[in-house]
Amino acid sequence: MQSDAFHLGPLADPGECHGPIDLAGTPASTARAWLRKLIEIRCAEEKIGDEFGRAVIKCPCHLVIGQEAPAVGVAAHIRDGDRVFGAHRSHAHFLALGGSLHHLLAEVLGKDTGCSRGMGGSMHLLDRAHNFHGSVPIVGATVPIATGAALAAKMDGNGAVAVSYLGDGATEEGVFHESLNFASVFKLPVLYVVENNLFSSHLHISLRQPFDSECRHAEAHGVAWQRVDGNDTVAMAAAAGRAIAAARAGQGPQLIEAVTYRWRGHVGHREDNDVGVQRKEGLAEWKKRDPVARLAAAMVAAGQMAETGVAAITVEYRAAVEAAWVQACADPYPSAAALIERVYSTGRAS
Amino acid sequence: MTDYGQALREGFAYLLKNHPECFTIGQGLWSPWYVGHSMTDLDKEFGRERVIDTPVSELATTGAAVGAALSGKRPIVIHPRVDFFLLAVDQLVNQAAKWRHMFGGQVDVPVVVRAIINRGGEQGAQHSQALHSWFAHVPGLRVVMPSTPADARDLLIAASLGCDPVLFIDDRWLYEQKAELPPVNPALRLAEVKPRIDIEGTDLTLVGCSYSAHLCRLAAAELKTHGISAEVVDLRVINPLDRTVVAGSVRKTGRLLAVDGDWSTCGMAGEIIASVCECVPPGSLKASPRRLTLPDAPAPTSKPLEKAYYFHAEEVVAAAQEILGRK
Q1: Distance CA B237, CA B219 (A)
Q2: Which domain holds residue A133?
Q3: Beta pairing, strands A162-167 & A190-196
Q4: pLDDT tens digit string along B162-200?
Q5: Of B192, B214, B236, which residue is a domain's last?
Q6: Read out DSSP for B276-319?
Q7: Domain that holds residue B64
Q8: How many domains does chain B have?
């Protein structure tokens, strides 16, 4: 653990961490699987951005391009029975756990074949078959919900964990602090993954908080914490592995601060043109901390992949995304009856 | 005879005994007085792992219950006062009530939030609110307002064993009401619970829920001594609202007094009157419908002001007599 829970230090400097990451003995097959997942997510997001730009997709989409690695690193340690919850920027969380491109694309189009039956759009994703139990855009709202899933897991004593993805903005919500305190007091098996991309909507963290690291909140609430280069998939997976193992072992709540950066605006497809905010200079530097390129460079240097590897995988996933898109476009919308029928349960118990 | 508070405790005990997935969580559950005598010693009987007292964190506690409900449990969150529950509204209104709909009907959220109306005693503006019509406005949220000991026990059980989020509001002014309780009917489904005609009558219809229904029953007994035959409808569940029972009663009596222990504007009483006006042929009303509610002001502390603020059975009687032109 780092001693300074208050400051990100070099991780906040866009001039740092541009080179290949340390594979740290990661088997070639594992590294390749992670790289493929990063590229799948990026291809999906680029497609969604394009179609958003063409106004074919209308629902608000918060694209994750540039910060794909935390989702892939955490997903490596999720097993059936765990419960993962996302927030407004959760396409990566959904796909990293194994969610289907078709279900995601159909959902952002509001189709009945979407992961939320066309009732949620980009901001309400669900995939219980892959342990993803919901994402919602009310900031911080899934933090206590994941905490409660961990309470249930503790009651069941089955070694399951809950994961709550949140951003740096959500740490400004009171419920984040209530939840960390609650989880700490009851020693719950929950992992809070704070994806600190330094921006909440249009506001830089320096305009919102006195310090730039969210680990200080974990420290204050007696929650074990790690800070990670959130654009280093291997480091991210290692941190998640340690945290989730500790939570499964009954050591109480864990927090990982994944320092990262989004390349697009808060919402929509455009780069750095988000409600008047210009980040051009910093963005160019941040793009050199690309999680895809850095993992790929390490794999090439280690002789695990040819230099053309990324291009080949990208071609493959662009085709997969396109096929899923064509299918989603042809799918039906929910029936008008769904509007009322899905309000209350028709289950026997109620 | 079992009083309302004891009946609630019987409901909790039934759930904790027969359903291992049920648990209760909230502030004051290990205290002898926070929730009257409605949960006394449940922690000793069923263990503090299932009767959980919490930090002073209404929102996280309610959110945790929602999360547990998404994870196979049937939690009941206790908010000893409606006023403090307002700190937790996001988790019930934005999350639990919408979860099924926004995820395409794929998920059950069997969470109960029990919020208690605890007013009078010069407690003032932030220790006295009911606010049930706020919550009855929200699709996806079942809102339950029992007025009798049997309903307090049975609707609590039905709420917890259902599939939807429920706001269960009980009023401490009812805790001493006594009745003989029938055996628990474990098959009762909240969706089938309709408003109930407690007293049949022919001259006018009195409608209320929770403590207001109790006042309507007292008023009907008093009106009878004046030769007025009042029909009393206890709404029991105010969302989703079944309008047919009230409308049927008013078609018969031709007169309506909606009584509600909350504010008037955009409140339950107005909703009842509007519903009746939509359902009943205009010629069948013998008098303009009326409502009796709290004044549109926060609850006071000073004793004479408090006396002026809350209405009693006498005011229900007087309003009914005015509708009938007998005053």
Answers
A1: 21
A2: 9-332
A3: parallel
A4: 999 999 999 999 999 999 999 999 999 999 999 999 999
A5: B192
A6: HHHHS-GGG-SS--EEEE--SSPPP-SHHHHHHHS--HHHHHHH
A7: 2-192
A8: 2
**Token duo for residue A227:** 């800070």
Chain B neighbors of A138, CB-CB under 8 A: 90, 94-95
Nearest to B131 by CA among B215, B232, B238: B238
CATH at residue A111: 3.40.50.970
Structure confidence by residue, pLDDT tens digits, B122-167: 999 999 999 999 999 999 999 999 999 999 999 999 999 999 999 9
Determine contact: B59 vs chain A, CB below 8 A: yes
Same domain, B187 and B201: no
Question: How many structural domains compose chain A?
Answer: 1
- Cβ-in-10-Å burial (0-12, 13-18, 19+) of B315 comes to middle
User: Which residues of chain B does A151 touch, with a Cβ-Cβ cutoff of 8 Å?
Assistant: 64, 67-68
Amino acid identity of B81? Answer: R
Cβ–Cβ gap B108/A149 under 8 Å:
no
> Quick check: A295 contacting B, CB < 8 Å?
no
Residue A178 to residue B91, Cβ atoms within 8 A: no
Question: What pLDDT digit, counting tens, does each position of A176-223 carry?
Answer: 999 999 999 999 999 999 999 999 998 999 999 999 999 999 999 999
Residue B156, Cβ density class (10 Å: 0-12 exposed, 13-18 middle, ≥19 buried): buried
Length of chain B: 327
Rounded Cα gap, residues A142 and A191, in angstroms: 12
Torsion of CA B51, B53, B57, B58, to 10 degrees: 40
Contacts of B44 (CB under 8 A, 6+ apart): none
B227 and B273, same domain (yes or no): yes
Nearest beta carbon to residue A116 from set B90, B104, B161: B104
Rounded CA separation B286/B250 (Å): 10
Residues B148 and B214 placed together within one structural domain of the fold: no
Q: Classify strands B2-3 and B51-53 as parallel, antiparallel or unpaired.
A: unpaired
Report the alpha-carbon distance of residue A245 to residue A77 in Å, rounded: 9
Which secondary-structure segment (H or E) carries A55?
A: none
Question: B152 and chain A: CB distance < 8 Å anywhere?
Answer: no
Q: First and final CA of chain B: distance in angstroms?
A: 38
User: Do B42 and B173 lie in a common domain?
Assistant: yes
User: Cβ distance B280 to B145 under 8 Å?
Assistant: no
Per the DSSP assignment, residues forming a β-bridge with A277 are: A274
Residue A63 and residue A68: Cα distance in Å, rounded?
A: 10
Nearest neighbour of B164 by CB, restricted to A114, A138, A344: A344
The CA distances from residue A348 to A344, B13, B143, B162, B192, in Å, are 12, 23, 19, 8, 11
| pLDDT for res A2 | 46
| CA distance to A135, B53, B224, per residue, from B206 (Å) | 45, 40, 13
Closest CA to A113 of A302, A334, A317: A334
In chain B, DSSP finds a helix count (H) and a strand count (E) of 13, 14
Instruction: Could you list the beta-strand ranges (E) of B101-255.
Output: 112-117, 142-144, 166-171, 178-179, 196-199, 204-208, 230-234, 237-239
